[in-house]
Amino acid sequence: MSEHILAAETKPWVKGTDRPFVRIKGITKMFGDLAAVKDVSLDIYRGELFCLLGGSGCGKSTLLRMLAGFETPTGGAIEIDGQDMTGVPANMRPTNMMFQSYALFPHMSVEKNVAYGLRREGVPKGEAMQRTADMLGLVKLDGFARRKPHQLSGGQQQRVALARALVKQPKLLLLDEPLGALDKKLREETQFELIRIQEELGVTFIVVTHDQEEAMTLSTRIGVMDAGRIVQVGEPREIYETPNSRFVADFIGSVNIFDGEVDVAAPDLMRVNTSEGPVMCEPVAGLTARQKLHIAVRPERIRLSRTPLEAANTMQGVVTEVAYMGNLSVYRVQLPNGQCLKVTAANGLHEDNPITWDETVHIGWSAAACRVLVK
Amino acid sequence: MKLRFTPIMALLGYLFLYGPIISLVVYSFNKSKLVTVWGGWSTKWYAELFANQQIMDAAKLSLKIAVVSASVATVLGTMMAMVLVRFKRVRGKGLMGGMVTGPLVMPDVIIGLSLLLLFVAMQSLIGWPAGRGLTTILIAHITFNMAYVAVVVQSRLSDMDDSIEEAALDLGASPARVFFDITLPMITPALVSGWLLAFTLSLDDLVISSFVSGPGATTLPMVIFSKVRLGVSPDINALASLIVLAVSIGIIVSALLMRQKPK
C-alpha cells in the first residue's frame, strides 16, 4: 500500500499530526427555536480548499457566516490559526469573504472596491494601488480599474469580488456560492481559475456550495451537511465511492438504491433480500440477519448488454428511456417489479445498432459495486 | 374595441391638474385690482409684493423654518430608519416601527393641539420653551418631518443588499466607517428626496404652525390665510406664482441630478 503512505504526506487530514488551521468545536446556532447549525465540529488544514456542500437551508451558509463573524454562535467555539474567535468582531478577523451576490460597492470604481480593504488596514495609497493593480492582473481584469461595477458582466463582477477578498492576503478566504450566478460554461472555466489562484497564493479556502459537481471539481475535501449537521467529511472520491449514509449517496451524483434486509451474512458474500430480488454484496462487519439496510449502486457500475452477463448480480429489464449525453448515454431500465434503474454507459465510436427504447436487456454488477448503507 | 390613450386624454389630464395653477399665474399679471376681472397686463403686483414688509418677513421666517427643520429631521429620521432596519434585537422595535407612521396619518389639528398642550405644560414645569414662537414651530415641524424622512429612508435601506455593508465590515472597516463610506452614499437619493419632502411640508404647513406659534412668529401660510379671509388680493397671486416658479425649478434641478447618477 505504498500509494497510501505517499498520499498521507501531502494530506494532513490523513496524517493527523499537523495542527488544524481552522478548528470548529461543537458549534450550534439557534434562530429562535430553530437550530440552523447543530453541534458541528470540523478541522480544516492550511492550504485546503474545503467545500461545505448541502441543499438549501442545511446550515452551510450560517456556518460560513459564523466563521466570518456575521453571526454569533449560540454554543461552541471557532479557532483560526490557534486564536479563539469568540467575541472577535467581523472587521477584526483574519478572514475575508466573497459574497454570493458579490456585494460590490456600487458607487466605487473597480479599483476603489479592491483597494478598500487595504486602505482600511492603513496601507499607504501608493502601495495599495500597486497591490490592487497586481491583484486585478491576477484575475485578468487589467484595464477595467476605472469602471463601475454595473458596467461589468457577471463574470467580471465575480472576479472583482474575488480580487477584493484576496487583496488583503487573508489567512482564510470564505466563499459563499462563488460561482452560483454564472452560466455553465463560465462556471467551469472559473472553477479551474479558482484552483489556480488558490494554489498560487496558498490561501486556505472554505467554499459553500449546493452544486455537488462544483464541490467535486474544486475541493480537497468535502463536508456534506444536512439539517444543520455534518453528515460526512472526506475527499471527493471517498464521498462518491464510499458514502456513509443513504442521504450522502443520494445527494452526491446519481445512484440506484435498493431497500432490503440481510438474509445470510456469509464471510465471503452477503445476501440481501430486496423487493427487486436478492442482491449479493461484499460482507460488512457487525450486521445481523434481518437487519434493514440500503444498497447503493452507481449507474456507471452497472453493465448493460443484450446477452446474458456473468456477474454477482444480474437482472433483466426493459429500456424505457435513453438520454444521449454525448460522451455517455443514460438508460432507464424498468425491472419486472416496476422499479426503474439508472444505468450509464460510455458511447463508443461509430456504434452501430445501439441499445434503444423498449429493448429487453440484461444488466449486471459486481458485489464490490454495492455500497451497503445502514443509515 | 381596444381603448386607446389619445393626446386629447392627456391634454384633459394636464388641464385638470395644472389649469388652476395656470389661471393663478395669468391673474398675477392682472392690472385690475379685482381678482376676477381682467384689466390688461401688468407686473405691478410683483412690485407691491416686494414692498410688503409683512409678507417678506413671513417668507423669510418660513424659509428659515423649512431649511432648519428639514435638515434636523433628515438627520433624526435617518437615525431612526437605521435603528428600524439595521439593528437586530431592539426592544420594542415592532411598536416603534408602527408608531413612526403616526404623524403621517394623524390629523394636523390633533398634532397641533397636542403639541400646544405639551409646550404649555413644559413651560409651567421647566420654563422651557419660554412662550410660543420660532422655537416651538421648529420643534413641531421637526417632529412630523422626522416621521416622513424615516419612512422614505427606511424603504431605501430595506431595499439595499445587507451584504454590501457586511462586505465593508469584512474588509476591516469599523461599523462607523461602514456607515459613512458605504451606507450613506448609497442612501443619498433617499436623503435628498426626504429632505425635499420635509422642506415642502414645512413650507406648506398652516394648521400645526397656527397652534404652536405665538406673537411675532407668523409664517407665510399664516399671512396668506389671514389676508385671504379679508378677500383675495392680487399680490397674493403674485406670491403664489413665485412659489410655483421656485418649486418648478427645484423639481427640474432634482430630476436632472437624478438623471446624471448612473442607475
Could you give a short description of this structure?
Helix content of chain A is 26%, strand content 33%. With 375 residues, chain A is an alpha+beta fold. Chain A folds into 2 domains: 18-249, 3-Layer(aba) Sandwich (Rossmann fold), CATH 3.40.50; 254-373, Beta Barrel (OB fold (Dihydrolipoamide Acetyltransferase, E2P)).
Overview of the molecule:
The complex is a heterodimer of chains A (375) and B (263). In chain A, 26% of the residues lie in helices and 33% in strands. Chain A is an alpha+beta fold. Chain A folds into two domains: 18-249, P-loop containing nucleotide triphosphate hydrolases (Rossmann fold, 3-Layer(aba) Sandwich), CATH 3.40.50; 254-373, Beta Barrel (OB fold (Dihydrolipoamide Acetyltransferase, E2P)), CATH 2.40.50. In chain B, 30% of the residues are buried. Helix content of chain B is 77%, strand content 0%. Chain B is globular, with a radius of gyration of 23 Å. Chain B has a domain at 53-231: MetI-like (MetI-like fold). Chain B is mainly α. At the A-B interface, strand 6 and helix 4 of A face helix 8 and helix 9 of B.
Topology:
The complex is a heterodimer of chains A (375) and B (263).
Chain A: H1 2-10, H2 12-15, E1 22-31, E2 34-44, E3 49-53, H3 60-68, E4 75-80, E5 83-84, E6 95-98, H4 110-121, H5 125-138, H6 154-166, E7 172-176, H7 184-201, E8 204-209, H8 212-218, E9 221-226, E10 229-234, H9 236-241, H10 246-251, E11 256-265, E12 270-274, E13 277-281, E14 292-297, E15 303-305, E16 313-324, E17 328-334, E18 340-346, E19 360-365, E20 371-373
Parallel strand pairs in A: 3-8, 3-9, 6-7, 7-8
Antiparallel strand pairs in A: 1-2, 1-4, 4-5, 9-10, 11-12, 11-14, 12-13, 14-20, 15-19, 16-17, 16-19, 17-18
Chain B: H1 7-28, H2 44-51, H3 53-86, H4 93-99, H5 102-105, H6 108-126, H7 134-159, H8 162-170, H9 175-204, H10 207-212, H11 220-229, H12 234-260
Helix pairs in contact in B: 1-12, 2-12, 3-7, 3-9, 3-11, 7-9, 8-9
